Amino acid sequence: MSLHNCSARFRVMSAGRRWGKTLACCNELAKNGLEHNDTLNWWVAPTYSQANIAFELMANALHPILAKDPNYSKLRMDLVNKSVIECRSAEKYNNLRGNGPDACVIDEARDVRKEAWHEVLRPAMADTQGWVIFISTPRGYDWFFDLFRLGQDPLNKDYVSFTFPTSSNPYIPQSEIDELKRTLPERVFRQEILAEFLDDASNVFHGLDACLGGTLEEPKPGHTYVIGWDPAKHEDFSVMTCLDLDTQHVCAFYRTNQIDYTFQVNELASMARCYNDASVLMDSTGVGDPLLEAVRQHGVSVDGFLFTSVSKKELVERLVIAIEQRQITYPLIDGIITVF
Predict the structure, then answer these.
(1) 18-32, 51-65, 308-322 — which is least confidently predicted?
(2) Domain 213-339, CATH number (from 3.40.50.20, 2.60.34.10, 3.30.420.240, 3.40.50.410)
(3) Which fold is adopted by the domain 2-193?
(4) CA-based angle 77:78:83, to the nearest 5?
(5) pLDDT at 206 over 80
(6) What does the alpha-carbon distance between residue 335 and residue 255 come to, in Å, rounded to a whole number?
(7) What's the predicted TM-score (pTM) here?
(8) Which of 87, 209, 339, 340 is deepest in the core (most CB within 10 A)?
(9) Between 21-35 and 48-62, two packed helices, what is the crossing angle to 10 degrees?
(10) What pLDDT is attached to residue 339?
């Protein structure tokens, strides 16, 4: 394979998720330790737990040729030829100062601070002339992208870059790739599966204009509606959005700030009754149960939603897909794009 056969000192690999980059580079590091006596070989990962994954993989494979049992507390293996393999964390990257490795794999390089490479690891390898493999899925135009570009320059003989999409793993069926393409936001699929560098990775929503259409609508007999409420009292805006579940169209929208919660609850209850006794899902992260109970006292069917980093990510990804695939529509009214 091209990665294993490459002799460049610095190999930069952009790979899709589940491609097998950990296994491939564990093989490279172990091979170097076995073929070159008395060498120091490092696996550097963003966190200790990530370093431990590679350590266990290599410890199990190399156990018959270790000089002694693996040191699981220090994530160190001593080979019979006096070579050493260590798996290190870059969380406190200054702890990497000291002896320079003869070979190094930097795992999930996008999540390793660039100072760990520029200030610590690269200078440490000046005397060893060691080689490095940088592996990661991409994330925008960061320092990993800068390294990747070096490998695309034919005049820079020290660097070579590779791109391996998830689909190039022969053990992942094409049907799985097709399902990921269908269900993931386009940008997530391109970045995490196709291993593409995207120039505006911070811009989450695409295709907003394509979903614009129609107007605010009066309730329709027999239609089912749901209202999402993001309450706020002072500086932030309180927003109520009513969605027609039969047409997936935003039919009512209310946005205000510096209004007392009592007034907001009355406005919410009025909107819910108007739209065929719509159910309500409200953000209860900051306001908690008292405001939720106040809504229930108006006879409204309401549930609270607690935002966490995980739940917010899931909601955003579902909205990204809905917008990209034009599963929802909304009228052009002040504030609605800001909310989205």
Answers:
(1) 308-322
(2) 3.30.420.240
(3) Rossmann fold (3.40.50)
(4) 115
(5) no
(6) 8
(7) 0.64
(8) 87
(9) 60
(10) 45
Q: What local confidence, expressed as pLDDT, does residue 235 receive?
A: 61
Tokens representing 10? Answer: 């610095």
Q: What percent of the chain is modeled with pLDDT above 70?
A: 95
CATH 3.40.50.300 residue ranges of the chain are 2-193
Integer Cα distance of 187 and 241 in angstroms: 26
DSSP sequence for 262-329: HHHHHHHHHHHHHTTS-EEEEE-TTT-HHHHHHHHTTT--EEEE---HHHHHHHHHHHHHHHHTT--B
Give, as one character, the DSSP assignment of residue 20.
-
At residue 78, the 3 state secondary structure works out as: strand
Residues of the chain with CATH 3.30.420.240: 213-339
| Contacts with 315 (C-beta within 8 Å, 6 or more apart), sequence order | none
Q: What is the pLDDT of residues 68-81, one digit of tens each?
A: 999 999 999 999 99
Token pair 């794999």 in the structure block, residue: 105
d(CA 9, CA 57): 24
